[in-house]
Design a protein that fits this description.
185 residues; mainly alpha; Rna Polymerase Sigma Factor, Chain: A; Arc Repressor Mutant, subunit A; 9 helices; globular; transcription regulation; RNA_pol_sigma_r2; RNA_pol_sigma-70_dom; transcription; sigma factor
Length: 185
């Protein structure tokens, strides 16, 4: 995908400027790259390629909904592959794949590499979450980070499912505001 970086970045830039056709073309182009990425890694993890389609859709939705976080001064493909990698890891966690299921020579392709950026991002997330009231922190942690269902999170929090949903919604909104304010400093 690196060879196509200038064309993809031009589509993303046009998309961010409000060009709907460019946005559709971008998502169409990315779907092929993402499909290959997910299929290759799922096969190496001993999984079926059918799972790739769901992951492609999840990654495209994340690109679509998170496009405002993309910095046009940076390359596009590392940003897209970071999203894809996190979607893959979340999927493997949810479906209980572990490195014990993968050969040693393949494990590095499936499991996230512990890198400085990932550590820094995790620390930023923890710092931002710590600013929220504890009920919002818990709801976001259980559902969005740990992958529990709303019902499971409600049971752990001792709250209703509606309260968990409201806490997630309000917490994410507050995080978005805090991130925007921090960016403007």
């Amino acid at each position: 995908m690196i060879a196509k970086e200038p064309a993809l970045k031009a589509l993303m830039t046009a998309s961010l400027a409000g060009d709907g056709r460019a946005h559709r073309d971008l998502l169409q182009a990315l779907s092929g790259y993402l499909r290959g990425y997910f299929r290759g890694r799922l096969v190496r993890a001993g999984r079926g390629v059918a799972e790739a389609e769901d992951l492609v859709q999840e990654a495209l939705m994340a690109v679509h909904t998170g496009r405002h976080t993309y910095d046009p001064a940076e390359p596009l493909t590392p940003w897209v592959f970071a999203i894809a990698r996190y979607k893959l890891l979340d999927h493997l966690r949810r479906t209980k794949t572990s490195t014990a299921d993968v050969g040693l020579d393949q494990a590095e392709d499936v499991v996230a590499v512990d890198d400085y950026t990932g550590t820094e991002s995790a620390l930023d997330l923890r710092r931002m979450l710590s600013r929220l009231p504890s009920r919002m922190q818990q709801a976001i942690q259980f559902v969005k980070i740990d992958g529990l269902s709303v019902a499971e999170a409600a049971a752990k929090c001792g709250a209703s499912e509606s309260a968990v949903k409201v806490n997630i919604h309000r917490g994410l909104k507050a995080l978005g505001t805090a991130i925007a304010q921090e960016k403007n400093r």
